[in-house]
Amino acid sequence: MNDYIIEFSNVKKYFQLSQGGLGKNRKIVKAVDDVSFKVRRGATFAVIGESGSGKSTMAKMLMKFEEVTEGKILVDGEDISKMKDKDTLKSYRRKVQIVHQDPTSSLNPRKTIKEIIEEPLIVHRMGNAAERLERVRELIQVVDLPVSFLDRYPHMLSGGQKQRVGIARAIALNSKLIVLDEPTSALDVSVQSKVIDLLKRIQKEFNLTYVFITHDLALVKNFADYVIIMQKGNLVEEGSTEELFNNPKQQYTRKLLKAIPVIGDDEQAFLDRIQLDEYTISM
Ligand SMILES: Nc1ncnc2c1ncn2[C@@H]1O[C@H](COP(=O)(O)OP(=O)(O)O)[C@@H](O)[C@H]1O
Ligand SMILES: [Mg+2]
After folding, report:
1. 192 lines ligand 1 (CB under 6 A)
2. Which atom number of ligand 1 is nearest to the Cα of residue 182?
3. Alpha-carbon distances of 202 from 99, 139, 167, 205, 221, rounded to whole Å
4. Does residue 29 line the site of ligand 1, with CB under 6 A?
5. Does residue 51 line the site of ligand 1, with CB under 6 A?
6. Which atom of ligand 1 is nearest to the CA of 54?
7. Is 22 domain-assigned?
8. Residues 6+ apart with CB under 8 A from 135
9. For 119-137, what is each residue's pLDDT tens digit?
């Protein structure tokens, strides 16, 4: 088997804007501009960049929600732009899943948690009703939620709990490649680290490859193996997490690193105490 599960070769995605000029004067957004990289199987591969740098567009191309303008994306050595017929696409969708940024808008409010986690199993015709229920019960426990939550609706869950449901659904089909598009940026900091811990545990348990998209470099340090830095559609720097944190080559990367707050033990204890006080006051 190929060491690399994903290979981007000179990938471009240009959007033509409908407003703003006609013919030659039409405005073009170069969302992703000539980007190449490889993702090692089983790794956590972080894509870092400010808002608008092209991260979600890369995820959408990888998911086949958007076609590439130019270049090639190989997944398991196969050119995904060549996948056109319904069956090929369907089997590709079993292989790659995504966890979205905002769990509130990505979970259908009219469906129960059971129905939400079961949906991919139904779409891909996995098992009968009893076998699917068994699988759903197993999945909710994998993400550390009680089985009693299966009858609830998304609005009855906290942000972190909803994101756990999103993760359970993403692994329901045993997909080996999971795209995490800012999975914790809608969550409180204390909840963020718990979700990251869960993702780490699941990755080991099921041998997953993660493409972890974030604008938050602080989250990456103890999670990712390899990092690419995106700026305005261009890949400006890449390296192992250690290399990048210890020896950033680009001015831009240094700027991002400097923006990470450094918290010592005393300060952390102080902050914890303040939070506790605030909590007590608001009770
Ligand atoms: N469907 C689209 N049509 C036009 N422009 C788009 C579309 N999707 C994304 N863009 C533009 O492409 C750039 C990259 O967007 P995106 O990939 O969402 O960035 P990020 O996820 O890093 O915030 C932005 O300038 C955005 O406005
Ligand atoms: Mg985005």
Report:
1. no
2. 21
3. 14, 11, 9, 5, 18
4. yes
5. yes
6. 17
7. no
8. 118, 121, 126, 127, 172
9. 999 999 999 999 999 999 9
Mutate to test the pocket of ligand 1, among 29, 33, 185 (most ligand atoms within 8 A of CB): 29
Please give the distance, rounded to the nearest whole angstrom, from the Cα atom of residue 265 to the centre of ligand 2. 33
| Lowest-confidence segment of 29-38, 97-106, 128-137, 193-202 by average pLDDT | 97-106
Task: Give the least confident one: 20-29, 146-155, 185-194.
Answer: 20-29
* 266 within a domain of the structure (yes/no): no
Which residues, 6 or more positions from 136, have their beta carbon under 8 angstroms from its beta carbon? 114, 117, 118, 121, 150, 172
Ligand 1 nearest atom to the CA of residue 66, by list position: 1
Look up the CATH number of the domain holding residue 239.
3.40.50.300
The conformation of residue 257, written as its DSSP 8-state character, comes to H
Residue 278 lies in a domain: no
Q: Give the atom of ligand 1 at the shortest distance from the alpha carbon of 56.
A: 21
pLDDT band at 27 (very low <50, low <70, confident <90, very high): confident
How far from the centroid of its chain's Cα atoms is residue 57's Cα? 12
CA of 86 to the centre of ligand 2 (A): 27
Domain that holds residue 120: 39-67+84-261
- What's the structural domain count of the chain? 1
Q: Give the pLDDT of residue 2.
A: 78
Residue 252: inside a domain, yes or no?
Answer: yes
